[in-house]
Amino acid sequence: MAEAQKRLSHTTLKRRERFHPKRDVRPAVLAKANRLVIWVAAFIGLSFLAIIILQEVLG
Question: What's this model's pTM, rounded to 2 decimal places?
Answer without folding.
Answer: 0.52
